[in-house]
Amino acid sequence: MQSNRPKGVMHKVPLTADKDEAGHIRFRPHSDLWDSNGMFKFHKDDHGMSKQDFHLVEYVLDDRTGEGLKFPSVPHDAMWVAAIEDPDRPVCPGKDTKSDYSVLEPISVCDQGQRLIVRNENPRREQWAFTLNFVKGGADERDVDDYVSWDPITDNHNGGTMEIM
Length: 165
Known about the structure:
165 residues, five-stranded mixed beta sheet, 1 helix
């Protein structure tokens, strides 16, 4: 007998940070959720999830920059989120954007800033822009102007088709 309680499906996303030849920091996710268009794609049906279920995304930083990068300790500082109004012209949220955490919610920063846990409700087909923020070792994490940021897209494909009985 199935429970009425929603369940979470965990997706671990190792995230390598390194520098290119010009010294710019770049981020490379290693996950089957990542596609070649620079988006994380979520399909509840592909993971045997019901409409009520949710995704948990565990971003695990592997910093190879020599900068001592980590997520800020406050989850809402570690991730800014905005719905995409025009898919042809997505705008990634910045420090002055009022974040909308109704679908993507950063819930925990742990392991000395090396992990960020995010809950993705994926209630319907829609896209969300988000920015993951990092602070350099020794920097004041309250100074958002000094954040090192990465801004991919979340592509929620469906809200699941199965109902919990």
